[in-house]
Amino acid sequence: MCDFLSALVLRNGDIVADPERGDSHEDLVRSLGLRDTGETTIAGRSFYRVEFTPPEDSTQVEDLSTWTLKVDESVTPDWADLVQARAKLEDRVRAMFIRDHRDELKGGCWILLGNAVVDVVSDARIVLMYGESHVGEMYNESRVGGMCGKSSVGVMWGESSISVMRDKSSVDRMRDKSRVDGMYDESRVGWMNNESRVGVMRDKSRVGEMRDKSYVGGMRGKSRVGVMYGKSRVGVMWGESSIRVMRDKSHVDEMRGKSHVGRMYGKSRVGVMCDESSVGVARKRILP
User: Is 0.85 surpassed by the pTM of this model?
Assistant: First the structure.
């Protein structure tokens, strides 16, 4: 798995990267028609792979000297100039920083810092959001990679996605194939439609409403789901997590602690419920 920012450094010192579309070294190699002759002959190769990654401490992100440059090869070629490569990668990342208010972002790859505000994002990738940065609406295939501090996204459309949300981050609406892989602390999602899904929700995370093929992988602490429709389902719920209504083919595999389900309709089912967990009303069938 390649990390942001992934790039190729050519023998002439040029940097090849396409962060707007992703962080795959192999995609870059194929796009340039380069020949990978293998690790044992890297000295004769015309490029080598690198990753330029931000520090774990979000307060240091703007200081590019704290970023880590890693050669993603078993051997670093003797012709590699890592000082030059680092300087060029720092320039690339510095150009992605946004600290002010933007009406719209069309395309590109960006990092939001401080009190940055973006009203509309279209076909763009926001790889990181820090501080109290905020995005109003996201359209088409726009994505958010990670959110820290009090960062938030208002509305997500199209195939927009969020990888990680931390602290008090929140999403009010998600549509189409939008998804959240992880939500921490007091993160929450207001509304998820179509094939939206949540990978992990912890602490006080909650989902207001999930429809169609929406899915929650795991919820812990006081996490809760308001309404689930269509083929929505929950993998694991712990602590005081609760679900009010589940319809159609929705199901819960495991609920523990004081977890609670208000109503279940259609072919909904519960796998395991422990401690003081309960089901209010169940129709059609409930499978043990």
Answer: no
